[in-house]
Every structure is written in structure tokens, then in C-alpha cells.
Amino acid sequence: MREGHAKIPAAAALLLLCGMVPARTDDPSAATSLRTFDPDRMDRSVDPCTDFYHYACGGWIKSNPVPADRGFLVPFLEIHERNLVLLRDILEKASVPGPGRDAAEQKSGDYYAACMDEKRIEAAGLRPLKDALDRIASVNSRQALSVEIARLQAAGDVLIFRLASEQDYRDPASVIANVDQDGLGLYGPDDYSRRGAEAGRMRSAYVEHIRKSLELVGGASGDAAAAASAVLKIESALAKEWLRPLARQEPVNMYHRMSRADLMALAPSFAWKEYFEAIQAPPLVDVNVRVPGFLRRLEDLLQNVSLDAWKDYLRFHLVNAWAPYLSSAFAKENFDFYGKTLGGATEPAPRWKTCVEFTEGSLGEAVGEIYVKAAFSPRARDEILGMVRGLVKVMTREIIEIPWMSEATRKEALAKLEALTINVGYPERWPDDTSLTIDREDFVGNERRCWLLGLRRNLERIGRPLDRKRWPISPAATDAAYHPWMDSVTYPAGILQPPFYEEDTDAVLKYGAIGMLIGHDLTHLFDGLCRQFDATGEWRDWWGAKDAREFKKRSRCFVREYSTFTAVDGVAVDGRLTLDENIADNGGLRIAYLGLQDLLRREPAAPVGGFTPEQRFFLADAQSFCGNLSDEVARSWSRNDGHALPQFRVNGVVSNMPEFRSAFNCKEGDPMVRENACRIW
Length: 681
Prior knowledge:
Elements: H1 10-16, H2 52-63, E1 72-73, H3 76-94, H4 103-116, H5 118-124, H6 130-138, H7 142-154, E2 161-167, E3 175-181, H8 197-216, H9 224-240, E4 257-259, H10 260-266, H11 272-279, E5 286-289, H12 292-304, H13 307-322, H14 328-342, H15 351-362, H16 364-375, H17 378-401, H18 407-418, E6 421-425, H19 443-460, E7 481-483, E8 488-492, H20 507-524, H21 545-562, E9 566-568, E10 571-572, H22 579-602, H23 613-623, E11 628-629, H24 631-640, H25 646-654, H26 658-663
Parallel strand pairs: 3-5, 6-8
Antiparallel strand pairs: 1-11, 2-3, 4-5, 7-8, 9-10
Helix pairs in contact: 3-4, 3-15, 3-16, 4-15, 4-16, 6-13, 7-11, 7-13, 8-9, 8-14, 9-12, 9-13, 15-16, 17-18, 17-20, 17-22, 20-22, 20-23, 22-25
């Protein structure tokens, strides 16, 4: 069950997934054809010491153009698309009514069936939004505006800001409320102010999208074009106080605990009391206001923007959030802007694929429960647990031996590693969603009820002790993560699939693919952000002053290196924005390599296909990043995402590794041999 996260346009959601590689998804055989390493993906005409990424991925790049329905192909899509095929089969079977279905199958199958019922969705047209639109039209005061924002948020629309629960940075055993910025329709705050012809065209297209969206819901408070411009002005003003992604990497910028009264004083024109009552928030004593300046800007807008403009803002964001769930006219307008203009796609995804993604996104645990039975074995779970524990030992050894770290800091770092919680595959207990009703004839209603249950669960945690056993990711998700507040790594069954994890392949390739991903997350324990949290999840400065200086000095090397890379049209990689992920990529591959060497000392391996074990290790890693991106996605990713583009996640890492140089006999002066190599872990 999703936890009350904002609806986001399909193109933006895919950017957040780190992207993917479509197989022939209408062909069931595609679900089983993926391999951890495939020599046919290579381009052997390229010198690996000159450009290892294109050496490993050149053949794949030539034969896999950007797909019409995605606008990009990057590593996780290969698994994601495979999972879509598997889930399609699962959900189509579960959608057939019958007494043999269990609760998870009934909910997942009926949600999917409702989504696939295009005839019913088409006939409904705008009707699912009529009540909300009527309420917006009747808003006649700031107090009524505040109440309507709460009602819309409870129904699935996050407007202006979001209210949620979070672990208290300073008291990690407890959960408090947080209020955070939200409410923009473009990908990043700089999209509202960036100069240049490309940025101007994007904003003009966005205003046109707002206008068309307002006309689809029956117009605006006045002229639709003027209303669209007014909505853009509201968002542009909010964007000026938006905390940028780079600033959000520092906890000091994200933690402002204050009383409920102090929160209300930031924006006194907003009817907070009525808002909290309408959204059914639990009693709030203290709140973490992540961006106080954002709420002060909201106060200014409430004072100076007309009520009609605010009502148009609500109308637009209502339809923008729900357009993919409505009839074809709404879905097409949403795709034309987010999919085509911003995402570089040329045609929408087939309906079954959209419905599989919607079902998994809204019923993550129910779908995960039946997915695990079909696609994940106990053997795989045991093997991954063993690999994680083995690489934790490697990381422990590296910290013990690191020369620049003091004993006091080393002791704290080792304690953090020792306390690490490892989640693999699926949770030990599945959440209880018996109160959730899924109706195969009510698609939008299903989505609203899923959202509301997730929101209720989220807000009910406020004021309670932290539940450290709660799973943070859907078991079928194509994702993996380290959570610093929980000091936990999570590898759901959805990502433990080919090409990242192939149960029957050899250990060399496993260390290059899934081993690198595990090492990546272990290194995140000590990146620029996560190193500021201790073994309990408390934000405190446990680093000695000299140790912190040494860490930052080594970090600057990565900033300089990655800032020399150019994505597209002169848009450079932001070495500061991508720093934590670059640290994790570099440290993760080295940890995985050391883990492989430990294994090879016990169990020597012979060359395969003309490649040594070390060469196959690096090739498996590189091929997990093979990708093609449209120019639109490459630009947006480089400006807003914390990950570097695929080619830099490969070449930027191996050029820092003397082990790579030895494996491929590279010489000093080769592009893949950096004169001043960067290294932290």
C-alpha cells in the first residue's frame, strides 16, 4: 500500500525510478531472456582503456533505440519491463472472479480489471472529479480554501505542501509530523526561472498545458489563458523559496522542529486548525517544518493572490494529478506535455503496462505478496543475505584499515555497520488491509481509497514509537535503498531479478552486478548525507574534526572529476548534486571487487569466453548501466537527479580504480586511467 506519496506525471515517475531497458514486452519469452552479462551487448571495436562504457555497451546502444513510450532506457528498466510481463500474467489471472482467490489476489486483480475497463472509464469522463470541482467553485474564503486543500490532499492530491510523518532526526525512536514543500507542476524549481530559448519554450508549453487542462474541466474562473498564466505565477513564486535538491542533502537545512503554534505563525492566513481537522491529523505538539521560508512565501501569496487565481490553481492540480486515471482526452493531454514535451516519448505505453504499474504502485504489498510466490525463491533470499553479510565484513575490514580515520570515529563507524538491518525480498509480516475495498467497476474510487488508507497509516504513526520492522519499499518494486534514519538496507524481490541477479549464473558475474549494488548501498552509510547519522539513526556529529576534513577533501576530488562531464547541449553534470551517488558508485564497486577477490582466493575461477574473472566482473557491472536517453530526459536528469548519467557511472568509476587498469592492461595516459584518482572507501 502506498504511503500517501504525491501523484506525479508518468514521465516524472520514471525519472525517479532511475530508468530502464525495455525488452519486447508483448513477447512472454522476453521475461526469461535477460542475462547478467551478454557479449553481444559489447562493441569490441572500442578500446576498453579509452571508453569502457561503449566497449561494454556499444552493441546494446546501437540495437536499442529510445523507446517510443518511455523517452529513455537506463539500467533498471530491463528488470522493470521483465517484471511488468510477469505481473501482467499474475494480474490477468487474479482478475478472473472466483472463490479460489485470496484477499491479495482479489484486491490486485479487481484493481487491474477496473483499470483495464477503458469503456467504463471513457464513459465516466469528468464525472469522477465533479464533486471536487463543485467544492472548489464554492470556495469563498481563505478558510474554505484551507479546508478544500485538506480534502483534496486526503483524496490523492498534494497541493502547495505535504503533511506526513517522519522519524525525528534528534530522537530516532519517535515519529513526528513534518510539513514539506510541494505543489509545482514542472520537474524542478529552476525550470521556472532558467533563461534561454529551450527554457522559454518549455514554460510556454506548460502554460498551454495548464490552459488546455482547465478547459477540459469546463473552464476557469475567467479566461482560461489568463488563468493559466496566474497558475504559473503562483508556482513561480513558490519556486523562489524552494529548497533545492543539493541543499536538501544537508540535514541542517531540513530540520526545523517547532511547536504547532510556531508553525501556524509562519502562515497565519492559512486556516491550520480547520485544515488539520479536515485531513484528520492526530494531535500535533511539535512539527518539523522542513522549509520555513516556503511557508512564509505561502503567507505572502495568500495575502496578495486573488481567491479566483487560487481556485484555478486547485482546479489545474486536481486534473493534472488525476488525468492519467481518466478518459482518453485527459490522459492524452497529460502525456502530450509530460511524456512528449518533457520526456521525449512519442507514443503512450500500451494500456496493460500502465495498469500493471498503477496496480503495483497503489497495492504494493498485495501485489508483492503474489509476486514473491511466483518470482522469488527461498534460495535466492538466502544467497543475497549471505552476500550482504559478506560484503559488510569487507566494508568492516576496510574501515579498520583506513589510514586517515581516528580511532574514536572508526569505533562509531564500525558500530553503525554492526547495527545495520538487512531486508531482503519481502517483509516478515504483510500489512493488514482488510479495511480496504476494491471495486472492479470503480477505478478512480479504488485509487482514492488506496491513497486514503496510505495517508491514514502515515499520519497515525505521528506521536508513536518508531516501528523498525516496517518495510520501506514495495516487495515487487524495481528499487533498492539505504535508509539512514533506520540504518537499514532493503533489496526487494522486484530488483533481485536478471540482469542484476541471475540465480543460476556464476559468482563472478553476481559480484559485478548485484554485488556492486550491495556495495553501493553499504557505502551510502558513510556518504556526505548519511555519515551525519549514527547507528541509532540520530543526527549528530560523531566525526572527529580531522576526520571530517579528510572526508571533505577526498569528496572534493569527486566533485571536480564529475563536473568535467557534459550530458547534452552543453548541460554539465553537477558534481555537487551527484556527489553522494558518485561516492557510493566508486566505493560500492571497490567493495564488491574486494569481496570477489576473497572468494577467488578460496575458489579460483578460470577465464570464460576469453575474459578473465576480473574482466567479467567489470563487464557485468558496466552492462547493468547500458542506457539510451532522449535529450529532454538527459537535460532534466542532469539538472534535477542525484545520479550521474549511465556512461559517467561507468567510466567515472573505473578510471579511479587501479584494479581496472590491471584487468585490462591499460597504460598511464589512457582516458580510463586518471592521473589523480579519487577514492574515499
